[in-house]
């Protein structure tokens, strides 16, 4: 039976898989969430420009870069800077946003991997956005707060990755450390949940069930006592109970297959750690699979397979694994 995708799946595809060399698509998504929670079906280009400008003005007060290339500024960074220092007026800034900021993002918002999605959340006629029922279905009455959380977290992650690149840091393999460095979100691991939840969709890696309630752990699939690193390709989110059940044991091979699929899911996206994953595991899916299997076999020789998994868990019925395969193979 063919998998049926819902509007939220396409929204996640845009946010998590769209090409992000800058933050425009994420900013537009934030505006769309707010429009989807209102009653207006037509948003003028001027209104969008005002909302876009105010959103960026607030965001840029934090001093975080909005584009990947060191030494460059986005159009929005330039316009906000000119308005702040008094070179141009507020109204002139809005006019420049309307004229210069949307040339690429508005026509390409619904494109993933250079392919148009089968649904859209608005139409743009050059003068206004005409919002579609698919947008209101997602966000009316403050619905799908988790999608807004994931969108916000994606913006945080992009800014952190752009900062690492600009300051010539080596991108950390440890996702926790990525957020702890340089004063970025010096909080506990819960700050990462929305980022990773966009990929695990609030499901435990080991049992496949919802993680909405209870403590969530970050776990090394291949035990750290053997592999001796915190590389992100080996890290997953799990229930506290499931993580404690696994302990420092090497899990059954089913979970390795799921890990391989999850990593291809990362690679298929334009996640900021994509290139680091490729550098760690290989340039092709075959190379990455071979590297992961080799690490697993090495661990097996040292400690053996000590955990068969959560009772009742079946790889073939895991809904998250189905999403991994369908999205990165499509």
Low-pLDDT segments, ≥5 res: 168-191
Shape: elongated
Distance between the termini: 16 Å
Number of strands: 9
**Counting H and I runs of at least 4 residues, what is the number of helices?**
16
For the largest beta-sheet, the strand count, sense and barrel status come to: 3 strands, antiparallel
Strand content is: 5-15%
Strand arrangement in the largest pleated sheet = 1-5-4
Structural class: mainly alpha
What's the SSE pattern?
HHEHHHHEEEEHHHHEHEHEHHHEH
What percent of the residues sit in helical stretches (DSSP H or I)? 40-55%
Count of individual domains: 2
Mean pLDDT: 83
Radius of gyration: 21 Å
Q: What would you note in describing this structure?
A:
With 330 residues, this protein is mainly α. It folds into two domains: 7-148; 200-329, no CATH class. 52% of the residues lie in helices and 9% in strands. The chain has 16 helices and nine strands. The strands form four sheets. It has a three-stranded antiparallel beta sheet with strand order 1-5-4. Strands 2-3 form a two-stranded antiparallel sheet. Helix 1 (7-17) packs parallel to helix 8. The protein is elongated, with a radius of gyration of 21 Å.
